[in-house]
Structures are given as C-alpha cells and as structure tokens.
C-alpha cells in the first residue's frame, strides 16, 4: 500500500517507509500480550474453581461427619445421664434399706 492511497482501517500499513514497526503493529503486539495474560488468568480462575469445588465437597463431608458426631455425643450423654439416675436410685434404695435394717430391730426390741 502506498502513501498516496486513502487510509483503510481494515488494512493498516505494517511498516513505515524507514522500515520501523508502525504504531498499529506495536498496539497489536500489546493486544496479543494482553490476550495471552488474560488466557493465563482464565486458566487460573478455572483451576481455582476446581479447587473451590473440591473444598466445597470436603466441607460438606466434614459437616456431615460433625452432624453424626453430634448425634453420637447426644446419645452417649443421654445414656450416661440414665446410668447416673439409675445409680442414684440404687444408692437411695440401698440407704433406705440400710436404715430399715438398723431402725426396725431397735424399734422392735424397745417395744
């Protein structure tokens, strides 16, 4: 394309008269570099998304495990509470029987 012809934005001149790169080719080079960087960033975002999905799955598994642990802990707590109540009742009955065994002979001998 010669200098005398009209400017066509669809066919920019890639070199000037003295052989240097034109502004258009420099801008195209910068655009290519930017596109490359953006592709790398998109790949990194996709990898990050995959890691986040994996982390989400692990978090869901941990939440399920924690819920199971909580249920098991409540069962154990209730079982231990009942065991404690039974033990207190047995001790109470034992003390009452001991008192009856001690007091009844004393009352019978005095009468």
Describe it for me?
The protein has 111 residues and is an all-alpha fold. It has one domain. 79% of the residues lie in helices and 0% in strands. It has 1 helix and no strands. The longest helix is centred in the middle third of the chain and has 88 residues. It is rod-shaped and about 140 Å long. The chain starts with 22 loop residues before the first helix and ends with a helix. About 6% of the residues have low confidence.
Name the beta content range.
under 5%
Shape: rod-shaped
Count of separate structural domains: 1
Backbone CA Rg: 44 Å
Our measurement of the CA-to-CA distance between the termini, rounded to an integer number of angstroms, reads 140 Å
Let me know the number of strands.
Answer: 0
Which structural class should the secondary elements be placed in? mainly alpha
Q: What oligomeric state best describes the polypeptide chains here?
A: single chain
Helicity range: over 70%
Instruction: Please write the string of helix (H) and strand (E) elements.
Output: H
**Average pLDDT, all residues:** 85
The helix count comes to 1
Low-pLDDT windows of residues: 14-20
Please summarize the sheet with the most strands. none
Give short descriptive properties of this protein.
111 residues, mainly alpha, Synaptobrevin-like, protein transport, transport, V_SNARE_CC, Synaptobrevin/VAMP
Give a quick summary of the entry.
Residues 23-83 form the V-SNARE coiled-coil homology domain. By secondary structure, this protein is an all-alpha fold.
């Amino acid at each position: 394309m010669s200098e005398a012809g009209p400017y066509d934005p669809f066919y920019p001149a890639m070199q000037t008269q003295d052989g240097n790169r034109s502004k258009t080719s420099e801008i195209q080079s910068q655009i290519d570099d930017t596109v490359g960087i953006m592709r790398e960033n998109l790949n990194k975002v996709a990898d990050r998304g995959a890691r986040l999905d994996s982390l989400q799955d692990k978090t869901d598994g941990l939440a399920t495990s924690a819920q199971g642990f909580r249920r098991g802990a409540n069962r154990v707590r209730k079982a231990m509470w009942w065991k404690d109540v039974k033990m207190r009742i047995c001790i109470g009955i034992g003390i009452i029987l001991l008192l009856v065994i001690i007091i009844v002979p004393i009352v019978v001998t005095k009468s």
